[in-house]
Amino acid sequence: EELLAGVWAQLLGVDRVGATDNFFELGGHSLLATQVISRIRDVFGADVPVATMFDRPTVRDLADAVEGAARGLAVPPVRAVGRDQVLPLSFAQQRLWFLDHLEPGSTEYNLPLPIRLDGDLDVAALGAALDAVVARHEVLRTRLSDGIDGVAHQVIEPPSGIPMPVVDVSGDADPLRAAEQLIARDMEAAFDLATGPLIRAALVRLAAGEHILALAMHHVVFDEWSGRILRRELTALYEGFSAGQPDPLSPLPAQYADFAVWQREWLSGEVLDGQLDYWRGKLDALPVLELPTDRPRPQTRSSEGGATRFTVPAETADALRALSRASGATMFMTLLAAFDVVLGRYCGADDVVVGTPVANRNRAETEDLIGFFVNTLVLRTDLSGDPTFGELLDRVRKTALNAYAHQDVPFEQLVDALVAERDRSRTPLFQVFFNYALEDAQDGAGLLGQGDGRPRDEVRVKDGDTAPRNTLFDLTLRFGDAGEGALSGEIEYSTALFDPATAERLARSLSTVLDAVAEDAGQRVADVSLVSGGELEALVRGWSGPEVALPGVGGVH
Asked: How far is Cα 20 from Cα 4, in angstroms, rounded to an integer?
């Protein structure tokens, strides 16, 4: 129990954890639960399913589960391999390499990472810190070579530094807007996967003591978790170098290329077949979610998109957090269940399919590595039988936990195994994406704490504003913590299919459902209204015109 309590305290960032404290009441969530399971594997040599964290959320109960778990690891650790061999692509890299060959010059997978820097800046120290990060993580010096046999592999270049030109926009009438435009233009410049480099940097000066470090990476070497690592390490290196100190970071035991080798060796044969069997059963006869679009679907999917923002007030968000705790669920699960209600009503469907990202870093060796680890899970929700929202939340909870237990199968492997014919008008398996991104307060500390690491084409945007961007799906819903208990929401949509007004109406519908289920989770899903009282009044009375008396009639004819 003492060892487990120490693990929890470290991951949760608290001083002390008691034997009967509830992990989720202390601020735990599914991502941290996965890290706890990873630590249990390292410390106790036991494999415990992540669902155990939800079923036994106290230190004492989890300790009992660890005691009863079988010893001896079923999954080998990630080890460093020699660089004298051909280094394969990871499965995720292979898919993006294929898509890059399918549409050469595409910027769909360019990831911006604008980091706001306030205060006096030592530009030389910042440049040295960035060079050190690139030297530390081989993947940031990697390019993807086609190879003479047509099989792509990783080529790691030696450290050589990364250019960081300084662009001064302080004389512009609106410096921040000018910076946004610079970042947007940079996102329109394609990366060459074969020649590299796959990272770019520029320092934008807004005013004295105000800068933006504008980083851009190709998704093939970077993901959201990587953004947290980069900010954390860049901060530590900058603080050290600006004070004349040496590199403060410990050496990495493995690199992304080592993970790719491990993944290819482990996820094959019976292991792969066993996990694929689960997904074949779960996704059998998968329906297409027929969204009510404003325009006919084009024959080839367009990546042009827009976005609208909205806010869920703290009162509603706090009630949803309380509901999650009482249900043994996470906010991710509760918000997804509400989104499923809206999608089911909009589409007239009881079988709702949504994609969601998973960090896929359930190994301690990968937690501190920059690279493309993130995987995509397909979550299928059954709304049939007129359940209450609480009953629906339990269904979503079970679906999510089962998916987490089978998250190792790369999405591209699922597509190959389950999709017989490709439809270029839609993304395979699902067309709607959902994510609830928790901001880790520890990642926000220090000079380089700002920015969220997710693909964005703007630095600022207000509620209800729309902004052009690339989008990978028909609809994407993202939630995050907005501070002071509130939630920030964003709906990203394909402009080939939807008008801005439709996305704004969808946001209002979702907000109304969240208010309703926060107040009463016991109501039937079919009884949850998608329109607020004001909208209902407008529909029934405001749009009906004045009341007029019916004329007297003698009969139906």
From this structure: 12
Q: Whole-angstrom Cα distance, residue 369 to residue 226?
A: 7
Same domain, 11 and 95: no
Residues 245 and 323 in one domain: no
Specify whether 63 is located in the same domain as 204: no
What's 534's DSSP letter?
A: H
pLDDT of residue 71: 60
Shared domain for 110 and 62, answered yes or no, is no
Q: Is pLDDT of 449 > 50?
A: no
CA distance 256 to 88: 11
Does the pTM exceed 0.90? no
Per the structure block, which two tokens stand in for 4? 């487990």
Specify the pairing of strand 432-437 against strand 475-483: parallel
Q: What is the pLDDT of residue 42?
A: 76
Listed in sequence order, the residues at least 6 apart from 357 whose beta carbon sits closer than 8 Å to its beta carbon are: 224, 374, 375, 376, 377, 433, 435
Instruction: State the Cα–Cα distance between residues 338 and 509, nearest whole angstrom.
Output: 10
| Rg (the chain; Cα; Å) | 25
Residue-level pLDDT at 70: 61
Strand runs (DSSP E) across 110-225, as ranges? 110-118, 142-145, 153-156, 166-168, 199-207, 210-218
Strands 351-358 and 304-312: unpaired
The domain total for the chain is: 3
Amino acid letter, 165: P
Q: Output phi, psi for 476, to 5 deg.
A: -135, 130
Q: Is residue 557 part of a domain?
A: no
Q: What is the DSSP letter of 540?
A: I
Q: What is the pLDDT of residues 255-313, one digit of tens each?
A: 999 999 999 999 888 888 989 999 999 999 999 999 999 999 999 888 899 999 999 99
Q: Is residue 293 part of a domain?
A: no
C-alpha span between 273 and 271 (Å, rounded): 6
Contact (Cβ atoms closer than 8 angstroms) between residue 340 and residue 226: no
Asked whether 172 and 209 are in contact (CB, 8 A), the reply is no
Residues 523 and 488 grouped into a single domain: yes
Write down the pLDDT at residue 40. Answer: 84
Q: Helix %, strand %, coil % for the chain, to 5?
A: 40, 15, 40
What is the domain range of residue 112? 87-258
Q: Which residue intervals of 104-162 are DSSP H helices?
A: 123-136
Q: Do 8 and 110 share a domain, yes or no?
A: no
Confidence bin at 446 (pLDDT 50/70/90): very low
Q: Is there a domain that residue 286 lies in?
A: no
Look up the CATH number of the domain holding residue 27.
1.10.1200.10
Among 528, 514, 513, 525, which Cα is nearest to 385's? Answer: 525
Residue 288 phi/psi, 5-degree rounding, is -95, 125
For residue 315, tell me if it sits in a domain. Answer: yes
Same domain? 109 vs 36 = no
* Residue 442, pLDDT score: 34
